[in-house]
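Predict both folds.
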Amino acid sequence: MSQLTEIDHVAIAVNDLAATIAWYESVLGARVVHREVVASDGVEEALIAVAESYVQLLTPTTPDSPVAKFLATRGEGLHHVGFRVADCAAALEAVRAAGGRLIDQVPRAGSRGTTVAFVHPKTIGGTLIELVEEGPAH
């Protein structure tokens, strides 16, 4: 049985959140459905709904956040892919059991009431993966 239930979001790191939102709205007719500052990660996010998933636009709120470091070394672009899982702890344990490198050793609180954990990009395919378990309100 697959741990993944669907794609939750594709995260894009940007320097200017307001300008990027304006572009998505004016050019693609997109709509921001959620905005939040995630202080623990040092980011502000804007979620654009695409069917049952999101494009997550991320900009740093602190100069030492992982997204700030990403922008400084790689520039704007794809930061990570978030996959929905029914049980974040079980999915994280499956990665650990398979010898995967973990960024989060245990699940933690994410934005919009989710529970999340990150898997290191060296685990598979060079892509940072976020496991996302929706909260009770979703």
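Second protein follows, with its predicted structure tokens after the sequence.
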Amino acid sequence: MPRLHLHDHESADGRVAPTLKATPINIFKGMANNPDVMQGLLGLSGSLGKSASLTPREKEAVMLRVSERNGCDYCLAAHTAVAAKKGVSAEDALAFRRGDGSNERETALLHFLEAVLDKQGFVDDAELDAFRAAGFDDAAVVEVCAGIAWMTFTNLFNHVNDTEIDFPRVPEVTTA
């Protein structure tokens, strides 16, 4: 049961009411308690969506892996649904959650992501070089860090709020 007040488009501040009318999902209903922060987060999300440094599939790999590491069932369900709309199979979504890519580029992305998370950004030159060798540029480095920030915020918010999942639930990840 959510721990914060939930807004709908009628009770929300006018700045975020259109978002709630267009996308009335539970995370936004709770986040609407602070329209300034919600707008900022949606701005970051929009920027991530426009950036061409990572493919849509790669962006979802980042979102799913961070959410798995942070144990956010809400974001796992939401981004599995989003990933499916972008052509990511259920099997590939599970692989991303485990940190496994389906090709060398995705694997390099997920290895770099793990290094950034494990080392709190203090990656060594070899890790950055390996990421670049897989075809990523400096803009992709920025996008990975922004994706981590976006997902970490939403994961933590959902934990604090105990956001009710309003997407199809996804299975737990099992290791082979």
